Amino acid sequence: MTLFEKLAQNAETSSNIDKTLFDTYSVKRGLRNADFSGVLVGLTTIGDVEGYDKADGKITPKEGKLFYRGVELKDLVQGFQDNKRHGFEETAYLLLSGQLPDDTELKEFDDILSAERELPPFFSKNMILSLRGRDIMNMLARSVLGLYTADDKAEDLSPENLIKQSISLIAKFPVIVAYSYFGMRHSYQRKSLVIRHPQPGLSAAENFLYMLKGDNYTKLEADLLDLSLVIHAEHGGGNNSSFTTRVVSSAQTDTYSAIAAALGSLKGGLHGGANLKVMDMIENIKTNVSDWSDEKEVSDYLLKILNKKAFDNTGKIYGIGHAIYTYSDPRAVLLKEKAKALAIEKGRLDEFNLYASIEKLAPEVFYQFKGENAKVICPNVDFYSGFVYDCLQIPKEIYTPIFAVSRIAGWCAHRIEEVCGSSKRIIRPAYKNVHDHIPYMEMENR
Hints:
The longest helix has 30 residues, at 159-188. The protein is mainly alpha-helical. The protein has a 3-stranded antiparallel β-sheet with strand order 1-2-3. It has helices spanning 3-15, 20-24, 73-82, 88-97, 103-116, 123-129, 136-148, 159-188, 204-213, 219-231, 240-249, 255-267, 274-288, 295-306, 330-345, 349-370, 381-391, 399-420, and strands at residues 47-55, 58-68, 71-72. It has 18 helices and 3 strands. It has 2 domains: 65-271 and 395-420, Citrate Synthase, domain 1 (Orthogonal Bundle), CATH 1.10.580; 274-391, CATH 1.10.230.10.
């Protein structure tokens, strides 16, 4: 046994804790209560997630709602779509300031974002294209930390400076992601290095598609990506990456360190990459179900998945179920409405119908599998987002980075609230040590 193997074995053994002790000390594992609801650790005015009512210890499912600064997401989306414009910029303004912008304010905000999309001199070459990596999320986090060196007021925690830093990061994230992708592709896939500079007058969604595909995108594609950015921009303070932002920010560190930490959280497979698992599962279903329109055949295969006899044998139907949403995830509802039109445009309606069939059948199969103990479940936003990105011909390596391109708006809002709000107290939870006290042993006796 090598020293590394021995250390690993000892570390694993030392990390095991008797699970009964968690109940003994009333530990809220994963900051979850016994009913799996989140432990209340803070107050916020930024995002609110509703999926059930809770009274007298009883949970009553209801249609899901998501609010940005008190404005319901579906109303926000309907507003800018009825106005036939993109809404991510308006959403970012709302999240940062707490107010919806008027025409003049939105125009000025758009102009500032457009100017801030330019990366510092030599940054693209030295930080992104010369230091290429295999994972775009890591390249994005490294670039964020690199931006610290280009900011003369990196440590300034005044509200105005935090707003300036936030706008700069919101503007630059899509550019860094696009450049990082082409740098990675050039280095590891031996393909041409393509660099397209962001164009003035284009929305965030249009610019991102332009940097990835040139002018080869449709209006519907841009509309879908804009919608995706809006619905992923914020989801309350309790999700892992937003909470990470608040924990790190509560220590009064700089913006770049806090956002890099959030990116590390989002990169984790249990947080930001769920739509990739959905895509893999759907491909497996498409291969093993001969008739996609046969609901019984689809149901039978879903039951096999739950019984750990199909796909990855984990017993999970990916993209179905959520910690808070019960009857519906409003983000999935909004995305599905537009996804069908995109599927028709791309000649992939049969595939979309398979998704819709799984959405319908999965709760029924889950109830059949669990019986009366089954909780109410619905498709979450990850169920359709991977399909949408695939229809947009966006590479899989960019799926999670797109999440970051959107969620940076929410992260920055949470950081500002944590740093400038009334709490201003470092987040410091408690851990109970359950190791017995042992005497030190002299070297010759070990």
